[in-house]
Amino acid sequence: MRFGPIEAAATSEELLRLARHLPERVYLGTSSWAFPGWQGLVYGGEYAESRLARQGLAAYGRHPLLRAVGIDRGYYQALDSAEWARTAREVPERFRFLIKAPAAVTDAVTRGGRHAPGRAVSANPRFLDPAYATERFVIPALEGLGEKTGPLVLQFAPMPAELTRDSPALIERIAEFLVRLPASHAQVRPIYAVELRNPELLTPRFVHRMREVGARLCVGIHPRMPPVARQAAALRTMDAQAAPDSGWSLAGPLVVRWSLHGGFGYEQARSRYAPFNRRARSPIAPINRVPSPPTPVPQPSPFRRQRKRAACGRTSCGISPASARSPACSSPGPGCGGNIPGDSPRHENRRAPARAE
Questions:
Q1: What is the tens place of the pLDDT at every residue in 145-194?
Q2: Fewest C-beta in 10 Å: which of 2, 44, 252, 294?
């Protein structure tokens, strides 16, 4: 284990040549930089994970291909502008940070503590509160990071069926929330990117409203979300030109959060790929089958009234996972507004309890 300043790994001519071919406005990076397994790839020695978390960002920022990094810790607790500024001083001017908004404004419920971290406890009174988001997230990030601010990702945790059942109203609430966030601050124009965990909300209505309010769709691989091809179809709908034959070109930044492996939960993928020191061309041991995510344990929803209500039989169309075992939709449900090109809509029962992931 080394002591002293954390050193960057030696840079090969192959990496430098590849970096020269990377377009200036393409920012590649990872989520966090505290991986001891990167010895010889990103870091020049063996360092403890805790030390890399505190002091490794500067060495990470010297890697010729790593021009960005995702910071998740603000999702759990809002950071102030001074902390963002200290982080920004560690990296070159060309570097960008993708940061997540606090769960305090993007999670519809408050969740259990240490003994039940994912369990919904009560309705969150700050959900979609633009004043709180502006004061505790947007302004501190823009003031602290300045021009190094990358996409501000609003990752909406899985929402209860009591909210998603009336999808038009929920989509309108999200749109109104985005409209009331700052369009600029400290001479920086933020990029707001929305990442869903409820695939039934990814409808043309949602896509069109996000386009109208100037937000981007964050494309990513996640067990709860549809395949990337269907998310790309939604993005194409968002950026569609007025003339149908004009082709597709991006109307704004492309924001992609690429997980370790489709079909795996976080812990499953982490146990398979750790310590994250193999290049893409290195062989990976095959497995017999892709394990399914664990079935969530039903929990009472804080949105439900004390009086029991019969299960709702209404359905909603949208981009649904390819594995859904339900008949094709012949009549769009409330709030659907049609089908996104390339999608095969299905009826799905959306009363499964929400879990934070």
A1: 999 999 999 999 999 999 999 999 999 999 999 999 999 999 999 999 99
A2: 294
Reported as a single tens digit per residue, the pLDDT across 30-74 is: 999 999 999 999 999 999 999 999 999 999 999 999 999 999 899
Instruction: pLDDT band for 114, please (50, 70, 90 cuts).
Output: low
CA distances from 60 to 16, 34, 42 (A): 15, 9, 6
Per the structure block, which two tokens stand in for 356?
A: 């934070």
Say what angle helices 204-213 and 167-179 make with each other, to 10 degrees: 10
CA distances from 265 to 9, 91, 293, 294, 350 (A): 31, 31, 6, 9, 20
Strands, E, within the chain: which ranges?
Answer: 29-31, 68-71, 96-100, 109-111, 120-123, 149-155, 191-195, 216-220, 255-257
CA 123 to CA 305: how far, in whole Å? 12
CATH 3.40.960 fits 68-278+312-357, yes or no: no
Domain residue ranges in the chain: 1-66, 68-278+312-357
Structure tokens at 106: 């993007």
Greatest distance between any 2 Cα atoms in the chain: 68
